[in-house]
Design brief:
One of its GO terms (cellular component) is cytosol. The protein is an alpha/beta fold. The chain has six helices and seven strands, in the order H-E-E-E-E-H-E-H-E-H-E-H-H. It has one domain: Nucleotidyltransferase, domain 5, CATH 3.30.420.10. A hairpin with a 5-residue loop joins strand 3 and strand 4.
Length: about 180
């Protein structure tokens, strides 16, 4: 993207096929959910549609990267291979994930939310519980986790009627035996 305020930005066209076609576990889509008061940072694992969310104080890059490090640091490296963003400036700290965790980062084309469709879908589900214009406060972390758990425990036809939580746990259990199609840093 010409003139982007995000340095070291890599376009989605460079994302490996195994991430794009959901052939490999550990590739994520990120977004922000804007509300009154605090906001949410969301991550969805592309293969399993598993959702993770954190309350962040504002839409700034600093709070976003803290949320991402909190989400991804506890995961084994094969469960955190890459993340794809939209072009919001809250993702300007993406290179921290590359440096700290070895995660690859990609950016969708401008005005192409469909390139991160799993995340957009899950954010829509979150909005059923936390409508636009509603207030989110730091003390709502337990409530947010209950909502995320409910979303992750709904069976999905595209997962063979497994829930995202079941599919995610199965992928974690299979990590030592999972072949890799992407190169790592």
């Amino acid at each position: 993207m010409h003139g982007s305020p995000i340095s070291l930005r890599v376009g989605i066209g460079h994302r490996p096929a195994c991430a794009s076609d959901r052939g490999e576990f550990g590739h994520w889509e990120a977004d922000s959910v804007i509300s009154v008061g605090c906001h949410l940072h969301t991550e969805v694992e592309r293969r399993t549609r598993y959702l993770k969310a954190r309350i962040i104080p504002d839409k700034g890059a600093a709070g976003t990267i803290v949320a991402q490090l909190g989400i991804f640091s506890p995961l084994p490296a094969p469960a955190r291979r890459s993340v794809t963003y939209d072009n919001g400036t809250e993702f300007a700290g993406h290179s921290t994930l590359v440096e700290a965790l070895g995660m690859l980062t990609y950016f969708a084309d401008p005005y192409s939310s469909w390139q991160r469709g799993s995340n957009e879908n899950r954010n829509g589900m979150l909005r059923r519980y936390l409508p636009k214009g509603g207030r989110i406060t730091p003390d709502m972390a337990d409530e947010l986790q209950a909502i995320v758990n409910e979303i992750n425990n709904r069976p999905m036809r595209l997962l063979g009627y497994q829930t995202p939580a079941e599919a995610y746990q199965q992928e974690l259990l299979n990590l030592p035996h999972q072949p890799r199609c992407c190169t790592s840093i």
